[in-house]
Each structure stands twice: as structure tokens, then as C-alpha cells.
What we know:
Layout: H1 3-29, H2 34-44, H3 49-73, H4 79-103, H5 107-131, H6 147-164, H7 168-179, H8 184-209, H9 214-234, H10 240-266
Helix pairs in contact: 1-2, 1-9, 2-3, 3-8, 3-9, 4-6, 4-8, 5-10, 6-7, 6-8, 7-8
Amino acid sequence: MCIRDRLIAMIEVVLLITGLIAGTLGGLLGIGGCVIMLPALAFLFKYPLPVAIGTTITAVILTASSGAYGHIRLKNVDYSTTKVVAVSGAVGAMVGSMAFFYLSNQLWLLNLILGFAFLYVSIRMIYEGIFRKKMVERVGNEVPGSIKAKATIGFTIGIVTGIVGLGGGYALVPSFIYLLSSPIKIAVGTSLASFISMAVVSGAFKLYQGVVDVVAAIALGIGTIIGAQIGARLTKIAPSWAIKATFGFVFLYVSLKFIWQGYVCLV
């Protein structure tokens, strides 16, 4: 094996490990692996931002599918909500992906959008970690709310997914819990099942545009699938609230870094 082939193999292994870490933390914190994979690709592996976004959302197709299957077996999926959110989310992902065609050439704006998206993630995690150490678990096997409310949530998050490659645990889960008063387990399971269509549509657009590293996406996806199982088991022994608060400050740094890069690109 030549040096170049060895280097490629090493990079693939490192990407697999990155996916493993992202999946473990995502499963432990309930935030999904995409919010860890995307900044890792952009800042650690130095991928161009559009390619980092395209590769992340393509990898998430594998992650969401695996996670949804697990929650279907556990009967944590509200199918009526999934149908509404999956369809409206797919439409939103089309709209967001078409906007991405323009934004991919406007790196300052793409950085700013990502910066404020991660700012939301950081604030939410810090708040939940410090002020909501023990969330009251609601009972039930469905996500409450009207079809209109669910369709609006799906469409809005679909647009965000199409633009920045984020959406599942990052946005759908808290929307179901805080806006629709869903039981947590049902929110997580329904989120994963609903998000598959958004990830597929967004990933297909990114593939067509040529901003996906397919090998990296597969390596990351496999890693997150394995890591998610580890993270799910760690929830029983690790103080997730403390880890969540810590990573809230990490994501605060990530958000400020994206915002700063957007400012630098603009000036």
C-alpha cells in the first residue's frame, strides 16, 4: 500500500472515530450527532463550509434511520405526527436546499446563520444543564398539538435543515417537548422518524450540487450509529446535566467562531 493510500485510510479511521464520539455524545445528551460532526469537519478537518454541511446531513441519514428503527422497536414513535412532520419537513428541506444553492457562494452569510444556530444550541444546553437538572417526564404515547402546529414546525425545521444541515435532535426534539408538551421519549423517537425525509431530501440536493464527501459521510454515519448505542447506555450512569452544561459552553465558543468567520468574510 502506497503512502497516499495509507494516508487516506488513516483519515477514514479518524472520521469513523469522530462519528463514534459524535454519536456517543449525541446519544448521551439527546442532541443528535450533527451538531458535533459539522464543526469538527469545518474546524478540525478544514472542510469548506458547504462541503462540511453537505457531508454532515448525508451522514445523518444513516444515523436517523438507525435511531428511528431502535425507537420503533421500543414503541416510542407517534406515527400520526411523523407523517405530518415528515411531509411538511421534506417540503421545507426542498425550499432550504434551494436557498443553499445561493448561500453556498455567500460564505459570510452561511457562517452567520450557523453561528446563530449554534448560539441557540449553546443557550438551550446551558439552561437545561444548570436550571433544569431534572425534567418532569410527561406521560403518554403521542405528541400533543394540532396538525397545523406540527406542519409549521416540520416546514420551518425542514428549511433550516436544507440550509445548515441541522435539525433532528437539535430542533425537533425541543420543539416537541417545549412547544407541544410531548413526553421526552416520544419526542426523541418521533423526531428521528420524522427527520429521515428531511435528511434524505437535503442530502440529495447536496449530492446533486457536488458538496458531499461520500466516503467521509459513510464513515461518520457508521461511527454515529455505533456511538449512539454507547451514549444511550451511558445515560444511566453519567450525569448528563453536567455534561450538557459543559458542552453548552463549548458550543457557545463554536457559535462565536462561526459568527467571527462570517464577519471576517464580510469585511
